[in-house]
Amino acid sequence: MHTEEKELSCAECATLNCHKHESRYPKFCLTSNVEASMLDTSLACYQEEGMDRTIALAAAEIEGKYYGTLTRVEEILAFARRIGARKIGIASCVGLVNESQIFAEILKINGFDVFMAICKVGSRDKTEIGLQETQKIRPNTFEPMCNPILQAKYANKAQTDLNVIMGLCVGHDSLFIKYAKAPITYLVVKDRVLGHNPIAALHLTKTYYKKLLTPREL
């Protein structure tokens, strides 16, 4: 009986030879088996003059010059300067407004213009997009929807040069990324349970978060 061969990727790799060239590539390696045309076209993006090359060089230069010495806030400042960004957009969760306003002040002090839109902009009830009252956090109350598409449209209208995501919900960040025109980076990734430190769940899979390794219906 024919069975479809399982597609393997970096998720199954145990050597990471592409990183230090100190081992061997597994048979399924994405590096040793890469299609020449796919590799060449990706490299061409970095070699041609334009924003792709500018972003790649800026990121690599910051890593080389400041490795392990700058906070993420400082890295964003350094990155923005290197790509020539003058106006920074902040797409903020309403629950992180205080932190976002502090970040905005830091940007202003460092010579950047700032435009910020919070997730509840437009202030429309969640039922307007089809959510049922029983699906709300607090049923039968006004509960404004997050509107990342409107956040992106505002950032586009303001002609931001770089956008920074401050804790948008899972999925809402996807919509902001889809609709925003300027390059995007993260300062905060939302995790309501772990104080916006989602990697902690991965570090604790052998102890407190063993449940993550058990299939669940969510």
CATH architecture descriptor of the largest domain: 3-Layer(aba) Sandwich
Specify the CATH homologous superfamily of the largest domain: Response regulator
Shape: globular
Helix fraction by DSSP (H/I, runs of at least 4): 25-40%
Named CATH topology of the largest domain: Rossmann fold
The strand count comes to 4
Number of helices: 8
Mean pLDDT level: 96
Tell me what portion of residues adopts beta-strand conformation: 5-15%
Largest sheet, in brief, is: 4 strands, parallel
pLDDT below 50 for ≥5 consecutive residues: which ranges? Answer: none
- Which CATH class of the largest domain is shown? Alpha Beta
Strand-pairing-aware structural class: alpha/beta
Strand order of the largest sheet: 2-1-3-4
**Tally of distinct domains:** 3
Rounded to an integer in angstroms, the radius of gyration calculated over CA atoms is: 21 Å
